[in-house]
Amino acid sequence: MVLDAQETVHKATVAVRENRLPEAISDLQAVLAQAPDDLAANHLLGVALMKSQRLPEAIAQLLKVTQLKPDHAAARTHLGMAYAATGKTELARRAFETALKIDPAFALAQSGLEKLPPPPTPAKKAPSPALPMPAPPLKTPTTPKVKDFTLPGSVKPKPAKKESVFSGMDSSDAALLIIGVILIGAGAYLSLYVSIRTGIIFLVLGVSALKAGQPGREHWKDDF
To answer: Sign of dihedral through CA atoms 211, 215, 217, 220?
Structure first.
């Protein structure tokens, strides 16, 4: 017996609305036996199976509809409802969102999406534990350097003072030296221009004064 597919699908639609689900499923399966790719019959069968709580069969049937017509917004929406009923929340969300991309004004898809729990917040990756910083090397206490003034070169030696002719002399010695120089000069002059004898006397006196004026010399008067 050849069924009128269109009339049978219409009859099954009324049966689904009136919740006469076994009758609707039987009629739709009869139509699909003659026309396996009938889009309306496949979709309505998926809805009837979902309402009958035959959820795995309903999901398989509705997936077949999405393969026959990928842009079937109603089939995507009912697929989302079947997924939600089985606790497959993320698959349901994906089905509802796909239906809204096809038909943004599809109210049933929008309400189904709003009924889903919010998507889980991605867990923050725990920061990796910081590597312990290596302990700074212990500084060996150092004794502050004290400048050793006994070492050679630690103190610049003061330049030795040049001793003058008058170093170590007292005022008397210096006076005698000066007198000696004057007498020797006078003796030389007198020997040349006045009298040799007188000049010699002055020279002897001058030499004696120079000797007496040497530093540390005692009893200088004995030279006279």
So the answer is: positive
